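It is worth pausing here to work through a concrete case rather than discussing structure prediction in the abstract. The textbook approach is simple: state the sequence, then state the predicted structure, then interpret. We follow exactly that order.
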Amino acid sequence: MKIIYKLKSGALQFTVFVAGLIALLLSGLMLYAYTFMYMKEQSKGAIENIQLSDTGIEYLLKQSEINSDTLSIDFNQKENQTIKVNLSQWGFFEKAYTITQFRKKIFVKTAIIGSLINSENSPTLFLQETQNPLTIVGNTSIKGIAFLPSQGVKPGYITGNSYYGSSLIYGSIKKSTSTLPKLEKSVTNALLFYLKDYKPMIQGDYINLETNRRIVNSFKTNTKGTYSKEAIVLANREITGNIIIKSDTLISIKRTAVLKDLILIAPIIEIEEGTIGNFQAIASKRITVGKACKLSYPSAMVLFQDNKDNLNIRSANPFDNQIFIDSGTIIKGSVCYFQTKELPDFHTQMVLEKESRIKGQVYCNGNFELRGTVSGSVYTKQFVANQSGSIFVNHIYNGTIENENIPTFFGGMVLENEPKTIMKWLY
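Step two, the predicted structure:
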């Protein structure tokens, strides 16, 4: 006799439900494992992107030539991973740009680059060999390594004042050469281009200073700028980033302007007293910096005069053909006067007034009147002191050059055959 058991429909449904639930759990576990591995790979790729960008920056620090093209570089890459780099001129300095990509993850890193300065080993003073000794008067103080003409250094006497220090040079003395250390050729080429040829080329790259009180442009995008044949007055506005402003006549910066990281280009650039900011000023006729300004690192004041075919540039304005920095001002960065003529004269091309300070580098292939303080390095053809209606050549009167109130390592103007370093990370 056969006994037939019948499975109730409720039990069958429960079995199917349990099987489905197990399948869903297994599918969820598999999806979780896949997602975990995918996110782990993506996170690892993002970290590698950042690390690769550092590889790109290190590569650019070793390059000696500017290249406007964006290049791919070789490395031990994995599938779907790339790195591209670009080294360009950014005013008086250089700009490094790297872009790394892993699948759809993209990371961009940019920085301002300059020559690496070791304040303990670099010249505190490099005075070009002109067959004239350096004469120091009053409370002048020079601390660090001094490269001087073969005639050396001696105390002097101006308007009843002799030299009051206990030592002529507080540091070592070495012999200088008949030429100053050279700037990279790309720097001088860039200065000529900015002053003579630069204009925003694409309509989308123009900015309107009249309608926008706050302008910000990232260094990860195209450079934007504005150009005018007339004078430009910057006041009551904030301008930040990858921006170039050029005038064919004058740029006047008022203390109410907040300027950060941009480049200003004009024959004449005037900075009102009390101005605070961080920018590069590139001029061909004069730069005047008013009293009590504070320009943070890495600012640059650069006067470039292509005057080899016009040797007798004269002007009724006493500030023309020079950089004038008034009292109480602090500039952290580089101040440079560069001219193409080679015949000497006794005009003053750079003046640093009393109680003013430059923390960084001064480069002057003309005549530098030092009344304030330079913390860092001075490279100059000659010093002059204008006192009582007379010009004293290769004299420093109450000026200070020292290497103690600066970092041991920092970045400065780009000199030939010098290693490079990061001056500032950009955004």
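Step three, interpretation. The radius of gyration is 30 Å. The longest helix spans residues 9-61.
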